Amino acid sequence: MFHGNCVTCHFETKAVSAPSMIEIREHYMRAFSKKEDFVAYMSTWVKDPKEETSIMLDAIKKYELMPYLHFDLESLQEISAYIYETDFSKEHNGHKE
Ligand code: HEC
Q1: Structural domains for the chain
Q2: What Gene3D superfamilies does the entry give (predicted)?
Q3: What local confidence, expressed as pLDDT, does residue 91 receive?
């Protein structure tokens, strides 16, 4: 699910039209050390992307606000947990899209 959807904009290791997943993950890791906080904040934010609640305002200036995606909260929690668990700097060889 993550690979099919998020990766169209968020390449895992390089930033093209949106910050890379490595950048986002590092940023969120710094802000939320606990997995439950990380997952709760990210899934809620992606459900309803808003400048006021963004923790990556520089990215919005650079790329514009992320568009709204039609995911339910439960799927987003799964995706966020996956992002939390995955070290993208080691993952990018041989991943499937
Ligand atoms: C159509 C392109 C696009 C898709 C698809 C997309 N994103 Fe984004 N995303 C962006 C852009 C552009 C930004 C940077 C601007 C911003 O933060 O809003 C961003 C920022 C983010 C942020 C940073 C939030 C913050 O605090 O500002 C998170 C987290 C995120 N995306 C997660 C996801 C996840 C998870 C998915 C898949 C379910 C996804 N994105 C799919 C374009 C996309």
Answers
A1: 2-91 (1.10.760)
A2: Cytochrome c-like domain (1.10.760.10)
A3: 58
Distance, CA of 74 to CA of 1 (rounded, Å) = 12
**18 alpha carbon – ligand 1 mean position (Å):** 7
Q: Is the CB of 5 under 6 A from ligand 1?
A: yes
- What atom of ligand 1 comes closest to residue 67's alpha carbon? 1
Cα 67 to ligand 1 centre (Å): 7
Q: What global pTM score does this model have?
A: 0.91
